[in-house]
């Protein structure tokens, strides 16, 4: 099949594109190479993807309708996977305009072009941040998610709602998946694991928010990609429920929301201990209160994902962290070229 994936220079888009290319599919990769974090890391990811003959990169912003239209028209996709977004909970407090442009205007452009070009399936990346400070544990897709605590979460919720309306009006089969704290090799430098490993190896203290009392449902990148790949052929059909008790398919549109998480939250303190063990080095901890917009806990209900695909993310955090540390040592401590890095 031919895939159009937005965000292929990003962490998740890179891994998904490489998996699909390895399976023999063709991929048009659309990415804006924004400067939210070091562009060189994004360029290294794209350099690896560009070694595949069936990969076509397009560098442009989602808000720019013309190049996005050309990406659709030059090779009409069978499947669209929209992963590109302005990420980061805390950065949304500093630069809200970036979230409006990318996550709302950019996502609208994707939705409207899918109306025109009619792919077999549109898959959208949403986030567990949508649940806000949900007191119902674990977080279920059918839980009320109308009280986001950050603009980032609000724009992702808005994207889901826009996608549902387009799915209803134009019968675009759409799956929105909510990610839970994705980590692994080639991860984002603004994420906790990357920051912890970098600081500990350099002998710098790490900032531990919420005094270490928070917990997160960590999802290893390979598990996330496996879940997405398995969801690609699970095309929603309006009001056709696989399991009436848990399925979220809309009664008015071929639209479904699915959590991608293992349902195994880990306390922040335990996570830091796992990082220390993988590095063989102790951290100096700077204990701090919760940051504005943070939530104390995330906890995915994985039953719908398992019902649809037979799969549940399962890589232990200890193993996932070990793999990240191995990659980091190669990529950042030994200055090995990107094309030579082996995970």
From TrEMBL:
Residue stretches making up the NAD-dependent epimerase/dehydratase domain: 4-232
EC number assigned by the record: 5.1.3.12
InterPro entries: Epimerase_deHydtase, NAD(P)-bd_dom_sf
Top-rank EC class of the record's enzyme: isomerase
Keyword Ion transport annotated: no
Gene Ontology MF term list: isomerase activity
Keyword annotations of the record: Isomerase, NAD, Plasmid
Coiled-coil positions: none
One Pfam family per UniProt: Epimerase
Entry keyword annotation includes Isomerase: yes
Record protein name field: UDP-glucuronate 5'-epimerase 2
Gene: lpsL-2
């Amino acid at each position: 099949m031919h895939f159009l994936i937005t965000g292929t220079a990003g962490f998740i888009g890179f891994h998904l594109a490489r998996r699909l290319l390895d399976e023999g599919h063709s991929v048009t990769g659309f990415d804006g190479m924004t400067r939210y974090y070091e562009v060189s890391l994004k360029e290294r990811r794209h350099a690896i993807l560009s070694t595949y003959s069936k990969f076509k990169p397009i560098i442009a912003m989602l808000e720019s309708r013309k190049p996005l239209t050309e990406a659709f028209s030059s090779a009409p996709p069978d499947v669209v996977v929209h992963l590109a977004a302005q990420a980061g909970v805390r950065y949304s407090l500093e630069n809200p305009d970036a979230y409006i442009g990318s996550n709302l205007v950019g996502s609208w452009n994707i939705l409207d072009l899918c109306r025109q070009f009619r792919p077999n399936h549109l898959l959208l990346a949403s986030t567990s941040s949508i649940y806000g400070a949900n007191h119902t544990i674990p977080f279920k897709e059918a839980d009320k998610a109308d009280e986001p605590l950050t603009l980032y979460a609000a724009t992702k919720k808005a994207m889901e709602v826009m996608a549902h309306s387009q799915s209803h009006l134009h019968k675009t089969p759409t799956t929105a998946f909510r990610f839970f704290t994705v980590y692994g090799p080639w991860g984002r430098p603004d994420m906790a694991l990357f920051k912890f490993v970098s600081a500990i190896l350099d002998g710098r203290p790490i900032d531990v928010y919420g005094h270490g009392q928070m917990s997160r449902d960590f999802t290893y990148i390979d598990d996330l990609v496996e879940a997405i790949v398995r969801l690609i052929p699970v095309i929603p059909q309006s009001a056709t429920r696989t399991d009436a008790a848990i399925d979220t398919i809309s009664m008015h549109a071929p639209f479904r929301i699915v959590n991608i998480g293992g349902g195994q939250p880990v306390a922040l303190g335990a996570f830091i201990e796992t990082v220390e063990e993988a590095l063989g080095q102790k951290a100096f901890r700077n204990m701090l209160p919760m940051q504005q917009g943070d939530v104390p806990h995330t906890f995915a209900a994985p039953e719908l994902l398992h019902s649809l695909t037979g799969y549940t993310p399962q890589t232990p955090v200890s193993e996932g962290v070990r793999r990240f540390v191995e990659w980091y040592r190669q990529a950042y401590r030994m200055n090995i070229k990107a094309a030579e890095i082996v995970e």
